[in-house]
Please model this.
Amino acid sequence: MSALAKLMLMMGKEVSGSDLVYNEEMCILNQWGAEIWVGHDPDKAEKAELIVYSLAVPSTDPELVRARERGIACVSRPHFLSEVTKDYAVIVAVAGTHGKTTATSIIANIFNEAGKAFSAHIGGNANGLGNMVYKGYDYFITEACEYKKSFIGLVADVAVVLNAEIDHPDTYSTVDALYDAFDEFLQNIKKGGAAVVSGESEYFRRLNSGNAKVISYGLEGDLTYLIENIREQKNGFYSFQITQNGMLKADISLKVPGYHNIYNATAAYAVCEQLKLDRTDIIKGIESFAGVERRFEEKGKIKGARIFVDYAHHPSEIRAAIATALSMRPKRLLIVFQPHTYSRTKRLFDEFTTCLSGGTELYLFKEYAARELPLQGASAYNLYTAIRNTGVNAYYYGNLLPLAEAVASSVRDGDIVLILGAGDIVMLADILKEIH
Model:
């Protein structure tokens, strides 16, 4: 939402809006000239010509109710995004349960390095780019979220599916329903367009891309691009090669840590080569990519221990973040995790009880409910109890300050503190940095 607000401001539109709690993006938008407030003020909604709302906003929202009473046009964020893209010549839409923000950011960085006239709509703040880039109308690069089938309205020239797993059980009750939605997303690709799909995902084995050309990538098999000769250059940082039909296409060294980023970078390469960008620019854009906020982002130190934060809130993402932290060979790994939404915690409960192993100590923090009401058996404390019963050295905290004090009292020089979750747990990093 904040990225779209920035784009409207860049286009000279008057922008206002609200959120339930104060946050950094709200401050940034106000500095840019928007009028953003905390809480509800329906009177202000009456000044708008158009209301754009997130799908996380209920129909009972006071601003939304007032706007509809006054006959003001109201559209969802996905609908607004799809309308915005119609002004652009070429659309790139990046979907997947994990990695959307990073892959979108890498593609945007490539276009930036290549000096193309493009805009990019990113679900996080990419280092050096932010979450909205506005440099022309030749290309529009955007994340395509599957939540409530948001991505269905996008009509792309190149659509990407990085992976497909249940992450929004309030939208998809079965994996088949999820796969059907991804099929529909790919079937909307423009005539002559392409679908870039991970050849290692279960979804790839049954995808229905309509008439789109399918470009696949992975470690092995009959795929368009193969990832080969993976080398760990230093703790957690990798180099690798991309080949096609036995021919070397690129030899790449990543500036960001994490084995999973090999796949994100390869997807970005496939997209940009499909769009006929210069190969030198593609490689330069991948290798100069400096990461995204809250995607294994180093935030500072406490008592000689490094602090990392990661947006991971799904078991697969958690495993990848923990693997990345362990690849840095810390003396000890202290993991802090905040579950995000009750429905996700309940649906993936058994996976959560196993994916959080690997650290020396595990701290569970009170769940971030987001848009949801409590569900029985789906709280952070329920998760803590189940994990504790498996023998893991786990602790539970319901308040940030006692949690920070506990982590600070345990941490030692050479450790890594890994803070995981998509909620307000990110504030823990700033608190820890102030403890000496």
Observations:
- Residues 100-113 form the longest helix (14 residues).
- The mean pLDDT is 94.
- The chain has 15 helices and 20 strands.
